[in-house]
Specification:
By secondary structure, this protein is an alpha/beta fold. The protein has eleven helices and five strands, in the order H-E-H-E-H-H-E-H-E-E-H-H-H-H-H-H. It has two domains: about 130 residues, Glutaredoxin (3-Layer(aba) Sandwich), CATH 3.40.30.10; about 90 residues, Endoplasmic reticulum protein erp29, CATH 1.20.1150.12. The chain is about 55% helix and about 10% strand. Helix 7 runs antiparallel to helix 8 and helix 8 runs antiparallel to helix 9.
Length: about 250
């Protein structure tokens, strides 16, 4: 009798563990649980945010739970990802105000909130539901936003800097930067700094700087404010080196 009870108990334990493993409401490493009072603090336009709207009873949501667990861990373990994207989920049955706000009609619904874009205009994720497919979508979105610190008028000067008299373009860039405001004013000085560096050190200096920064970021050598600064520098540097096969700058 005892062996039968032991087997029955083991089966119950395994079934309970199986149910818990697929419970979309459980805490997942690297995945934030959002509520109405915290949603706008997290989805604030400063980072990309992928949000799953789920219902605890939903079978498809349960099957997506291990995928989101893997995704959260992957982002959490990658310095270049965790400082640019957030993985989150919302119990839309419990927090119906959020479900109504974003027009949730079925479960699970995945929405992607891009950096710098209106919070109430997220993209609907309609791709595959594997971790690899979702991660590919995230990486593609981040790549498309590689120029997040770029300034249009300064980009035009960076292009001219490659082909015209660098010193003359630098002076024009300084005047243009002084006339800017807001985020553009904050990012423009980096263009000036890189122009000065290219003139002082000659051809290849900016390409080497981009490689150096990318190596530090990918290697997890920086975090927090320092990593944010490096990411912005890398963003601006692409204005000087992208689609430039020769990658040379005249020096005085």
């Amino acid at each position: 009798m005892a062996p039968k009870l032991l087997i029955t108990f083991a089966i119950v334990v395994l079934l309970a563990a199986s149910v818990l493993a697929d419970d979309p409401s459980q805490e997942l490493k690297g995945v934030l649980d959002l509520r109405p009072e915290t949603f706008d603090d997290v989805v604030n336009g400063r980072k990309d945010v992928l949000v799953e709207f789920y219902a605890p009873w939903c079978g498809h949501c349960k099957r997506l739970t291990p995928v989101f667990q893997q995704l959260g861990e992957r982002v959490q373990n990658s310095p270049s990802l965790r400082n640019r994207v957030i993985i989150a989920k919302v119990n839309a049955e419990e927090h119906r105000s959020l479900g109504n706000r974003f027009g949730i009609r079925g479960f699970p619904t995945l929405k992607y909130f891009g950096r710098g874009k209106p919070v109430d205009e997220p993209a609907d994720y309609q791709g595959g539901r594997s971790m690899t497919e979702i991660l590919a979508y995230i990486n593609k979105s981040l790549e498309a936003d590689a120029g997040f610190a770029r300034v249009e008028v300064m980009d035009a000067l960076a292009l001219r800097f490659r082909t015209e008299d660098p010193a003359a373009v630098l002076e024009e860039a300084r005047a243009q930067a002084a006339a800017l405001a807001g985020d553009d004013a904050a990012h423009a000085p980096m263009y000036i700094k890189f122009m000065e560096k290219a003139i002082a050190k000659g051809g290849g200096a900016l390409e080497h700087e981009l490689v150096r920064l990318k190596t530090l970021v990918d290697g997890g050598k920086a975090s927090g404010a320092k990593l944010d600064e490096m990411s912005r520098k890398m963003s601006v540097l692409t204005a000087f080196v992208e689609n430039n096969s020769e990658n040379t700058v005249a020096s005085e």
